[in-house]
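Dig into what follows:

_____
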Amino acid sequence: MGRAFVYVILGGGVAAGYAALEFSRSGVSHGELCIISEEPVVPYERPALSKGFLLPEAPARLPSFHTCVGANEERLTPKWYKEHGIELVLGTRVKSADVRRKTLLTATGETISYKILIIATGARALKLEEFGVKGSDAEHVCYLRDLADATRLVDVMQSCTDGNAVVIGGGYIGMECAASLVINKINVTMVFPEAHCMARLFTPKIASFYEDYYKSKGVKFIKGTVLSSFETDSNGKVTAVTLRDGNRLPADMVVVGIGIRPNTSLFEGQLTLEKGGIKVNGRMQSSNSSVYAVGDVAAFPVKLFGETRRLEHVDSARQSARHAVASIMEPVKTGEFDYLPFFYSRVFTMSWQFYGDNAGEVVHYGDFSGSTFGAYWVHKGYLVGSFLEGGTKEEYEAIAKATRLKPKVEDLGELERQGLSFALAVSREQRTELPIEGGGGGPGLVFEKPIYAWHATAGVVVAASIAVFAYWYARRRRRW
């Protein structure tokens, strides 16, 4: 028993929703497209789970944050998929894949065949057991990756008001969940092995600002150590955690956010893997020409830096999904994916955006005692990364454009003095009129044509559109 489709999207996360919308706009016929997902609901905007979904008042709930509202597009409800003739196979696990025969075998025994497959399987949350720590199955120990996790986390939070929560991990999930726990009137202690929060992205100075703000909200930090074991009561509910440094922390609940691992197991030995994900080319096409990969699971070439990377962020999932469908449906008109890495977060009343790469020497600017500050990263004499907290729409757009253009920087001191004004000046220059030497950058700063001038103009347009959306997104009411 089986079914056959022209196009199959394996996975039901953010990327699947944006791919489906792009397919519909490209004129896919009714009955040609199928989405297979382990989750029982149609694709939704996953960032809502660590933000609006966790709010104690007027929380975000489905159907309000189905894709593609995160990009100010239409909301794709189950009715939308039905009206567009897209088959949904929900609550279904695929237990094996055969890319040579172009078939997928579900856990129920059904064979689903395809002509073109888009792998959008995303990633799974790393479990403490993978690091030798047992007991994360204890009651009130929570992870956050999907809707079921978020629903359970809300239930646990509601039972722990005025209680103690321990957050394991200082990255995205840890920081955003810690903020939500505080808003839910729960006492929070964060534990992570690094020297500061968001260690993969933040500099010590940037991290210090956010840690101080969290401390003003009552959050405690214990750094340089990891969880060793749990203590539970006779009912199996967590009561405390023990750390490797000997500390014992009372806990009514524990939230674990220690990273993710791409879901590649179905395709190991069949497709080329790199950087922990499925390696694809600039068309999001894998080593098998009938198979594409998008989102967290895809390792793709980042033109701006001339290397393959795997990016774990919602914007990359959205953009790569759209590009994969465009490559499939209009291959002649579609060039290679030209993505500017983009990350953002919103916690409490703060909102930051980052573009590019945090490589090379860092230059901080702005008022770190106030609400607007930022940083530039300069590698081999060129601007490669930009960070800004508390910016306006124009300012976020400016750092995106400047990062895309990669202007030459000869004097870091002058860059620090100019601060945000540098990005604003670069972004206002006519791209086709940037002089080879000098011109508007001030002493020690040189505006040159970008290293990748042949694709910079289109890239700037993309960067600007991303920045405009991100600003709009941050300004919206925090329902999702």
